Each structure stands twice: as C-alpha cells, then as structure tokens.
Amino acid sequence: MFKRIANCLSIAAICTGFVLGSAFSLPTDASAAPPAKSLLLFDCGPGTAAPGYTGLLPTTSYSPSLGYGFEDVSKVTSRDRGAPDALRGDFCMPAGTQFKADLPNGDYQITVISGDNIASSSTGVKAEGVAIAALSSAAGQFDQKSFPVTITDGQLNLEFTGAVPRVNAVEISRIFKYDFGPGAIESGYIQVLESTAYSSERGYGFADTTKVSSRDRATSDPLRSDFTMPSGTSFLADVPNGDYQVRIISGDAIAGNSVDIKAEGLTKAAALTTAAGSYSDVTFTVSVIDSQLNVDIVGTVPRINALIATKLPNRVQGTVPNVYIAGDSTVQTYNSSFYPEAGWGQKIADYFTSSVKFTNRAIGGRSSKSFAVEGRLDAILNEIKPNDYLFIQFGHNDASSIPERHTDPYTTYKQYLNMYIDGANQRQAIPVLVTPVGRRSYDANGNFKNDFPDYVTAMKQVASERNVKLIDLNSKSIQYYNSIGVEATKSIFLWLEPGAYPNFPNGVQDNTHFQENGAIQIARLVTDGIREMNLAIISFIK
Questions:
Q1: Domain 19-173, what architecture?
Q2: Averaged pLDDT for residues 187-201
Q3: For the segment 488-533, what is each residue's pLDDT rounded down to a tens digit?
Q4: Are 313 and 242 in contact (CB under 8 A)?
Q5: How far does Cα 101 stand from its chain's mean position?
Q6: What is a single molecular function from GO for this protein (predicted)?
C-alpha cells in the first residue's frame, strides 16, 4: 500500500468487485487469470443490483457467450422485498436447476447469502455435485456461508436445494496460492522462482529479482522443501481490492530461520523463529486498496516457502450506520485521568439518537501518514460496512517537521487522503473529509486565523477532485472563536487554573486541545456540517 502511494490518485474509481459486462471470457488456468476476473459478485433477484455487483435475474439463462446464468430459467422464480438493502432485499428461488459460471481451473472461495425479510428460509448448497453448505434463517434474518471449491473443468456448478431455496447473493473469489523455490511444485499452486520478476502481464513476482536467491532441500514435501530468499525486495501480487486472510509458511529443512513479515507496509508477524526442520505457519488479515498485495519477508536470511491469500467475503450493511472517525488529539476520546480534556469525537454522539453509532479511532500525535502506517486505517477497513461513514480529520501533525508524521500538503497529504477515500469507497462506505479544526491563534487585532492554510486548501481540492463530502471545520471553528472573542475561548481550549482540576494540579494553558465544553461546541459544529451536507444520518440528530 505505502510503496505504491504515488499511484493512489490513479486508482480513484476502483470499486470492491468486478462488474461483469454482457459477456466475458476467461483463461483456462487460474494462474493466468487477471485480478479483475478473479472476483465475481452476483446480486440475485429482480431488484436493482447492489453497487459493485452484477444483477442475476431469474431470467438470466446460461450461455457460453454470457459465461454465467441458470441452466433452466423455467425453474427459477424470484421476489423483491425492498428491504433491508439492495443486496438482501431481493432473491432468486432456483429449484431443481443449476447456476453455472465459467471460470479458469483452480481453487476458489464461494460465499452465499440466503434469507428473506418476511419469511424463514432454509437452503442447501451443492458445489460440483457435492453437498457443501446449509443455510437457515428466521424471517428478517440472513445466513451467510463460505466454502472452498476446486474447479477442474472450467466451470463452477452450484445447485440450491430445499422446499423454497432463496439466494440473495453469490461471491466467487479466486484463492491465490504461491509455491516459492526451484523444486517440485505443490499441486494447485503457482511456482515463484528467484527469477520471477513482477510484471503487470504476469500479475505477480518480485520487485527486484537481483535481490532474490533460492534453495531446494529435495525433501518429500514440495511446499516446504524449497524456498526463495528475498533480501530487501517485496513480493507483489495483483489481487482484487478487499480484505484478505494471508497465510505464509517460512522455514528450512536443514537450518534455523528467523523472520519478520510485513504486508502492505505493516508488520504482521515479528521474530518468527524456527529450528532446522521446523516451519513457521502464520495467518493474518490485511486490507488491499490499490489492487496489489505487497509482502516483505525480513531477516538475515529471509525464507518464504508458500503464500496463500484468500479474500474475505464482502461485508453487508449493519443494522445501524456506524460513523468511524480517523483523526488526531483534537478528535480523540480521553479517559477520566485526563479530565476535563476532551476531543470532539468524544462528544458528537451526544447530538444523535442511538439509531447511529460512532466509533472514534482518533489518537493523539497522528497525521494522515502515521495513522495509516501504524495500521490504524487498516483496522478500520477490516470492520467498516456498506453505508457506514469514515470521517477523516488530519492536518495538525501533517504540518509537523517530524519525518514520521510530516506530509507535503499538495503531494503526499493529498495522496494519503485519497488512500482513506479509496478504502472507504471500495467497501461501499461513505468518506467525509473534515478540515483541521482551528487553534487558539489570533492576530494583534484579536482576529482568529488559520494555521493550516495549505492543508485546508489541499483537502478542499481532494474533496472537489473526488466528489467527496467535506465539512469545513477549520472555517466553522474560526468563525465561532471570533463570535465569542479571545477571552471567552479560554473556556473552549484547555486553559485551566492551578488547583481547579486534580489531573492538572499546576494548571495549563493549551491553545490546541479542548476542555469538555470546547469539545461539545466543536462537536456541535461538526453536527451542523452533517446537517448542511444532508447526509442520511441527519434523521438521527436529536
């Protein structure tokens, strides 16, 4: 993710799935399948297809030219309940016929959603003629099951069983499996040699093969017998955007091994140490937002034997919208040991009913860069659901001279903001940019001023370029400070007299952070911005 940040602006429109056209053709081997054709998303039923999904109507008949559909549409009926959302509000009822999809041979994960907003549901699933899953749900509930399927004949065949089987959605995602080293290849895996250089045509490989060597210990285990040693270079794999479960095997039959594993620039496993003949086998999740998985194996003699990347199913809309907040210390939630210090993200829920949830992930000292590099954006993207929100306020620490925090307003700052926007959009969530809240900074005439003019301008540019909602909290807060005057702003910011609060026995004069009253007022301004933008959650404002 971070090695490709310069490319963020070029991927602005990428969405979570591959929308099929009127016809598609696929290579016969999954190892040659481009990433877009490694993820197929079908929304079953007569209603409008969910964003990023291909509508699968009860009349969609399979043909080789189309490449997917029902074998016998006379045996398929459907309903559209209109709720709870576009994906689950409608469904097909294929009784006694198969759904077919032409696919390259290989391993896939299939996810099926089944349910009905007004009736109970019970649906069995057969894949390639084998019963593989059973889904059941009460009225208004939905079941979801995922299962692996190996395709050997160029076609996936799904049969849905039960008295009235209901199918809301089908997700088909390729499982990416790589066997590293020059020895025998494990069945179903793609071989990666030390000379396998990444190219967009191949879709996987090492960034710099001059930094890769390999060994084969000639044991009976083809997956663990051989390995590559990428020292100072990344393994890259083009994959559809989404959240992945990644499994990595690392070790050596005749030597000890100690490695750290990074994915998308984030440390996912540290100090994995094994003796000769033993192997570390670690699994972790990672969010991909730039259509490429980046993995680094770090160590004195780093070894990688195998990598398996399985896309996690797309998440469905929650029962209530969740507003995630990414930001700095002016936004964060403080515990009682800091009272009365508070951030606006701590107080904004007070302006809303319980029909909307706020999840404040803001933390002090973070910039748009460091928040992402530390994995905090990744954590949000691993949770956020369709129709949730991601509010993004950064700028205070981006303006810092500290290298780990600093971004340039018109280059890297904009690129990181685009990273947040891409991640939210790909998960069908709604990004909202919030310009950095004003400080208690004023001129000789007592007029408050903007300490972050370039960052505010750059954020507004991104909002315009990406057609993203923006709350100009910088302007709103400065107008508010001017309306109450310099002296009164001491009750907004963290200006405390000695002895007034046990947590600040010596008092404090802080022109950046807020006390509780200030956090309440700034949260009010953010709420005003939500109302002005006419976001759907305005119906939950008290």
A1: Sandwich (2.60)
A2: 98
A3: 999 999 999 999 999 999 999 999 999 999 999 999 999 999 999 9
A4: no
A5: 27
A6: hydrolase activity, acting on ester bonds
